[in-house]
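Posting for a labmate who doesn't have an account.
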Amino acid sequence: MKKIIVTLMAGLCLLVLHSCKSESVAIRRMCEDLHRQYPQADLQDIYKTCYQDFFGSQHLVNDTATARYYLDKELAECRDMDLRAMPRQEPTGFRHRFTRVNLACVIDGELTEEQLLAMFIEAAGTDNAFGDNWAEEWQRIEQIALQVNPSWTNATLQDSLRVAANNNRAVVHSRAFRNAYTPHYRIVRTKK
């Protein structure tokens, strides 16, 4: 019996190690892809996409009327903007639990405003958090991100992001990202 327990424990340890290594590879790949697609992105933009992947859109939805108001407002503001710097749809973070849907999809008639709003509200759900320790997850992501691109090192920004992570707070895209890529999108649940 003791031998069976030891064997099971060893197997469990190997499974956990494999899972951690797989996550590290996925984080590295996500950072490399983001850097390639968005050269103006910085560590703040890595935080944002990973936060979105961890929590979904819960932090954005207080009620349906408010969500509708902000979508209407943003659509009116960006109707004459060129939104092609970002893809029509792209996954968040490294787990890809959620998808960013570019508002160009509504402006160009691929989706109605009602469809996007319904998907956005559904994505808010009641509890989207992947786990209960965002600060610990962010610490792991930050470490790998800085290995991928050491130029993302910025002590002031890193401290600010750690404080945000410790308080489970979202951040906006970096100014450079906003200026270069004009991000206007909503987060929806990734369809499996």
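Reply:
Got it, the structure tokens are right above this. The radius of gyration is 19 Å.
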